[in-house]
Amino acid sequence: MKRFLIGQYGSFDEQKMERDFRDEFYGIEACLFENEADTQKLLSASRARDFRIGVHFPLRAGKALLRDALFLDANELTRDEALRLIRDELDYLRNVRPDYVLFHYPKPVILDDRVNWDKWHFSDRTEYVYDSDYSLELFTERSDHLLPGLAPLPEITASRRFWNSMR
Questions:
Q1: Which pTM was predicted?
Q2: Do 38 and 95 meet the contact criterion of CB atoms below 8 Å apart?
Q3: Spans in the chain with pLDDT lower than 70
Q4: Can you spell out the DSSP letters for 136-163?
């Protein structure tokens, strides 16, 4: 049971916490909190009940038009803004000290042209690109620039080692 988490999306829901959380659970994964008070409630509950916190990026709502940072977008300004958003959020999370931060990768999502995606839902057209428009070479190049672009944030050291081990 030490591997179970419950999600807290949008706010810290005390009723959900009492209903779903068990002391032997690993912790809570939080995403898109609307205000600082909810983050403080999460931190207080974590200390009181001794559980871990994970973040499904981003923890704070309203910092960008879309939830996910489009760090592999074709537009350089969009990529730069995504990196700024990630840096700002990771800087904020220094005080939260989550065990992990989960990102959707790649973003935009790269879709296989041969598949019918009509039933799949995206909030915005910028969240995906077709693989015929996004070569493996371009994907590799932009991915290689992603992690160094986040330096000198020490939190991503383990992620950088993981990425390098996958190559």
A1: 0.82
A2: no
A3: 1, 149-167
A4: HHHHHHHHHHHHHHHTT-GGGHHHHHHH
